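Researcher: I'm preparing a figure for a lab meeting and need a structural model of a single chain. I don't have an experimental structure, so a prediction will have to do for now. The sequence is pasted below. Please return the structure as tokens so I can convert it later.
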Amino acid sequence: QVQLVESGGGLVQAGGSLTLSCTASGRIFGIGVMGWYRQAPGNQRELVADINSSGSANYEDSVKGRFTISRDNAKNTVYLQMNSLKPEDTAVYYCKVVVRTASWNGPRDAWGQGTQVTVSS
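Model: Understood. Here is the structure written out token by token.
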């Protein structure tokens, strides 16, 4: 009922930049927190950054000062601007959106399919 489409991943050299985007579509009554997670091989999925509907953002310590999360509520889209990328940022990046599909439904998590980010040294 709710689809998330991610884009913007790719291969970049260390020190470079990438911008990820994730757009939600389908049966949407309301969207709450939007966020980005990442999972490197052999590691658990971890929160990178999230942002609430008022624009208040939260960042994982290793990305503070390098990554910026933002959202466009009119477009149901969340962005992740990644600067000064490091090889240790290499992972599959997933967006997650807390969404309600109707006024009588409670919020639930919807996940994107993931996009690969590879940072070469």
